[in-house]
Known about the structure:
Elements: E1 5-10, H1 15-25, E2 36-41, H2 46-61, E3 67-73, H3 76-79, E4 85-88, H4 104-108, H5 110-121, E5 127-130, H6 135-144, E6 154-156, H7 159-173, E7 180-181, E8 184-186, E9 194-196, E10 201-202, E11 205-206, H8 207-210, H9 214-226, H10 228-236, H11 242-256, E12 263-268, E13 280-289, E14 292-295, H12 303-322
Parallel strand pairs: 1-2, 1-4, 2-3, 4-5, 5-6
Antiparallel strand pairs: 7-10, 8-9, 10-11, 12-13, 13-14
Helix pairs in contact: 1-11, 5-6, 7-9
The structure holds nicotinamide-adenine-dinucleotide (NAD) and (2S)-2-hydroxybutanedioic acid.
Amino acid sequence: MTSPIRVAVTGAAGQICYSLLPRIAAGEMFGKDQPVILQLLEIPVEKVITAMSGVAMELDDCAFPLLAGIEMSDDPMAAFKGADWCLLVGSKPRGPGMERADLLKDNGRIFIGQGDAIDAVAADGCKVAVVGNPCNTNVMIAANRCARIPDENFTAMTRLDQNRAATQLAKKAGVPVTDVEDIIIYGNHSPTMYPDFFNAKIGGRPVTDVITDQAWLEGEFIPSVGKRGAAIIAARGLSSAASAANALIDHVRALITPGDTVHSIACKSDGTYGFSEGIWASVPVRTTGNGTYEVIGDMPQNGFAQEKLGLTNDELVGERDTVAELLQ
Ligand code: NAD
Ligand code: LMR
């Protein structure tokens, strides 16, 4: 019998986790032969802790064969103890009319305490994936607190944007989504993100050969991907949850599954594609197994793309400036 891995998940009583936790427990994230112990974290508010215990009761009631244990806590030092993976979902979502960056001051602080706890008690080699918004900057705050866990173990999720972009292209071309390849998100998980249709393919052909409506690609596709989160909030009154949980499954599965497929992952910039060093920007990566990856640094970028990359980089640098006091 394979030993269980420890998976810490924050925001366990929230919307995303309600979709996410059963899928992890069913083996969709770490594989159908990998038992998991879920270590759930919530805020110390009685109503919320009670809600988390209700989620745990439901997980029990699913009788998942791979669920080797559920631990619940309001203390990051307990929740991250020995964790092999830390999935940082817990934080405030935005409401209608807000940008994700409006959450910076409120949510940024969460990642100081959680970063400290991860550094103190998580397993050696622990991997950290941040979902809570604004995720590119929150992951930077958490990583900055950790001397023991290397920066490359910290990623933020732009997979939802990649999945959104793939579906938009497939619908426009009238093909199954599986025909779309190599559609990569660059930069920030915000409306400035750049979904690079120039290097993507549909049915093995360049997207621009299949979708010849360049005005749609530049003027409708790019903004519709960037503003999809806001469109969901406007329609649902709540931010995306099932699709966010699904994207986190894809993000982690990609990281533990080595191969040639190209994925969008926000990781620490070393200057590739002109991103400023030290910010977390989404770039194309190939994964090399057990949570490791290498950045693909040689995708050709034309003048249009370079302008977009510059804009999203500027925004990320601005977010870093805004939270400078949290990075001391
Ligand atoms: P939610 O409000 O339904 O749930 C968030 C939960 O986090 C709440 O139960 C809350 O009590 C908990 N929480 C808050 N602070 C915490 C802390 N310090 N420690 C532990 N738990 C804490 O929100 P949601 O819909 O689940 O969204 C969670 C976050 O994910 C939001 O910031 C949202 O904007 C973000 N998000 C990101 C993406 C992405 O693509 N990166 C997609 C969707 C949502
Ligand atoms: C999303 O992209 O759906 C999430 O980041 C939630 C949001 O605020 O848009």
